[in-house]
Every structure is written in structure tokens, then in C-alpha cells.
Amino acid sequence: MCAKATMEDFEALLKESFEIDTPEEGSVVKGKVIAIEAGQAIIDVGYKMEGRIDLKEFANPGEQPDINVGDEVEVYLDRVENSRGEAQISREKAKREEAWDRLEKAYAAETRVDGAIFGRVKGGFTVDLGGAVAFLPGSQVDVRPVRDAGPLMGLKQPFQILKMDRRRGNIVVSRRAILEESRAEQRAEVIGNLTEGQTVDGVVKNITEYGAFVDLGGVDGLLHVTDMAWRRVNHPSEILAIGETVKVQVIKINKETHRISLGMKQLQEDPWDAVERAYPLNSVHKGRVTNITDYGAFVELEAGVEGLVHVSEMSWTKKNVHPGKIVSTSQEVDVMVLEIDSAKRRVSLGLKQTQRNPWEVFAENNPIGSTIEGEVKNITEFGLFIGLENDIDGMVHLSDLSWDQRGEDAIANYRKGDTVKASVSEVDVEKERISLSVKALGEDTFTDAVDGVKRGSVITVEVTAIEEGGVEVEYNGAKSFIRRSDLSRDRGDQRPERFQVGDKVDVRVTNIDAKTRRMGLSIKAREIAEEKEAVEQYGSSDSGASLGDILGAALKGDKN
């Protein structure tokens, strides 16, 4: 009977053990700490199962483990039984599963989560989010690059989840998003208390080439370089230093972008208010060259007032020259006020107007007909350019080089650097032109030679050269040419070779051209004229008498 009862009890216990649900592997179960030994906590997870977990799994990053005998904890059941017959459990995996559930809810609701940076990895940092490890990219640590992240390590602070993938175990968080949100709220509050035109104190936070950023107490404003002073400022560092406290005026506030424009010069008196009184038109003032460009030079008349000397107003004589070859930066110069536009804050200045017009000076010192001497500066296809006083030039046209030679031939006698004497024939101050003449200093042999000679006159010339097309002759030093067809009335005698150099020949003047300085001469015209005259005196064309008979009778009559 006893044996039978014992068997029944065993069957009941066995049946009871089968009816108890054994927890599934890979799930989170509750357990109780029953002992702590050798750096491990022994935990009874029920179901007649115990397991061991290293104490470090119960510690937060940078903290000591907080675990005592009797504490109830949730653990992750990896395996029901390992090689030692114990349950294989993990506190970290339990915390991770719990954390993932919590983080997924926060990600869906776009709410902040608390965490602590505990390690550095390539491209950023690792963050403990209460059991789950997230990646914090370096660009998401702060609104500005962080050189030393040491003070942030182990510090519990809020983060924003940017992206998470539970299957892959990836979480990306941002600390910058939290800071920007807080900063935006702070900016909105500060901006809400600012008004355009208000004067405030600020601290110079950063300096760039185009201006400086000024901290107005949680919000930055841009102080542009052009709003720092009325005068030209080449670089903000000339008048500002980082950390300096400055008084500025709020010029403009953009409510949408929260951008604030600041000014310093607006708190100073505008020198342009008195420009027209201080600088009358055509008055001369001393200034300092502040900037040189391709189109001119800027000259500072006083702090905040600059004028432009255009390249065309820099020199009377230096044309197409870069302004930098006429003036230099920081040079003091005398300038004349040519025009003022207060609305556009522009002053047009002249440098050359402070000196006398060199063409006027030349005209005063060298009246028409006076003789000058200068060096040949340039030779062109239409004449010579002669260097004169005060760095100006005069031109001798081809037609004014010689009385006897063609201009194209005469110019070949000159070279650059030759010293030339010439007569002043015209000075046009307005057009800045001086006309000179070399031939005016010599005798006009042609005019003297043809003095008293008229068209139709018969003159005696001397043959100086025989050519195929005719003969060259000279009359009182003036050269002329008789064409072959004009050598005789008879075609058979129109041969140049029948003449010799030195022969004296009577010719009839058919034309006098002062421009080409040539006389038109013809033996043929003289013979025809003589025949006509003989016929009129001694016979008629229908009398039957030949020209020989008429001329013979005429000669005979002359003898009698």
C-alpha cells in the first residue's frame, strides 16, 4: 500500500511538472537575486532554473553596479540549460529589449530620449540609451564643430532619434537637433524683444572678411564691413577684435529667417550731410589715395567721404595708362571737385584739372609760325610725331615734309630719335592737336619757279633725263615731265631718244598744279599753237599752200 502511494505521488508530481509552462528561449523573464559571488549575481528565474550574470551588466556607463541579494530583476533567457546545467541569461539583452520597445515608441512620437556618450568610434561616438547603443555622428554633436568631446562623456543628456532599424540593431541620434531647437526658442525670445532702430550692446564673436558676428545675448547679428564706419574699411580687424564689447544699432530683422543686420556707423554723424557745403564745385582739396582700380582711383577727402578720379581725369597726356602708374595707394594728391551727387553719395574728382592744360601752355609760348625743335617719337603711314615740352606731341603730315619730294619718299629720310626742326602751323587746344610743318622752314622752289608763268605760256626748259615714256625737264629748279605723246606733233618724232641731256627745248605750259607741284608741258601743244597762229597771219587752210610754204614765207618776211 505504501509502495502504491509512493508511485501515485511520483506520477502526480511528474504530471504537475509537465503542466507548468517552461519559458521560451529568447524571451524576457523575471528573476530574483539569491546570491552574489565571484563578481557574478546568481539569479533564480523560477521553473527550478538558476543562472549567472556578471555584475558589470547591472552598472550604467561610468557607474558602480547597483544590485543586492533579494532584488527582483528582468533578464533575457538565451538558453534553458547550458553545458553546466544552468540557465544562460543576460541582463544587458533584457535591458536592450526593454530599451528598444521604449525607443521605438519615442521615435514614432518624435520625442527626446535620455542617454550618455560613453565611447568614440570612427566618424562619431557611441551613446547608451538605457540599454540600447546608438551612433552619434560627429556632425550631430553640436551646432559648431567640437574639438574636445571630453566634457560630454558620461553626461546624461537628451538626444533626438534620427533613424533606427531594430532588425539590424542600428540607431542614429543627434544632440545638435536638441541644441538647435533650444537655440531657436532662445533666438525667438531675444528677437521678440528687439526692434529695428534699437541700440544694443553686443560682444564680437567672430570676424570674417565681409564683417563680424556680434552676440546679442543668445542670438547673433551680422555687422557688415560697410556698416562699421563711414570711411572705407578694408578688413573688419582694423577696428574690431574678438571678445570686444561694442554698441550697435539694429538695422533690420528678418522674422522668418531670424537674421539680424547690425550697424555701427549709424550711431555716428553722417559726414555726407555737409559734403556740398565743405566741397564746392571746382574747388581744389588735398586727399589720400585709398584704392586703385582699372577705371580710376578713390581719394579720401575726409573720414567717410571718398571721391573717384576716373582714369580719363587723371592726366592730360597719359592716355590708356593704368591708374597705378600715375598714383599709388596712400599717396597725397591735390584734386578738383567736378561733380557731387549726395543722393548716390558720389563725388567725381579730377587730378589733371589741378594742373594747366599743356596744349594751352604750348599755344601761349609758341604762336603760329614759330619754330620748335623736338625728337621723332613715332613714324606712321601719315606722318611724324614730334615730342614737345610738357610730354605732348605734335604731328608733321606727309604733305608738310618736303617741297620737292613726295611725302612717301620724304618720310623715308627720318628715323626714331632724330631731332627735327619744324614750324607751328596750327594748335587746337580743344582737340589736343598740334600741326607742324618741316617744309615751311625751307624755300618753296616750285612757287618761285612758276612765278609769272601762266597756262599757255611758252617757256624754255632743259632736258635732265631721258626715259622710255618721255623726258624729264627742269625750269628754274622746278622739275616736270613731258610725256612721249607730247614730244612732237608728228608721230614719227615722238621719240625720247632724239633728245639729249642738256638740250634746251621750247614748250607750252598746259597746266600748273600747285598741289602736286608739277607743270604740264607739251612740245606738241606749242607746235600746234604756232601752226594755228601762222595760218591766221599768212594764209588759210583752203588756199592750197602747205605749212612749209607758209612758214617759209613767214620767215622770209621776217628777214625783210
From TrEMBL:
One of its GO terms (cellular component) is ribosome. Pfam families: S1. Residues 26-92, 110-176, 197-265, 282-352, 369-439, 456-524 form the S1 motif domain. Keywords: Repeat, Ribonucleoprotein, Ribosomal protein, RNA-binding. Transmembrane segments: none annotated. PROSITE patterns: S1 (PS50126). SUPFAM superfamilies: Nucleic acid-binding proteins (SSF50249). InterPro entries: NA-bd_OB-fold, Ribos_protein_bS1-like, Ribosomal_bS1, Ribosomal_protein_S1-like, S1_domain. Belongs to the bacterial ribosomal protein bS1 family. NCBIfam families: PRK06299.1-2, PRK06299.1-5, rpsA. Binds mRNA; thus facilitating recognition of the initiation point. It is needed to translate mRNA with a short Shine-Dalgarno (SD) purine-rich sequence. This is 30S ribosomal protein S1.
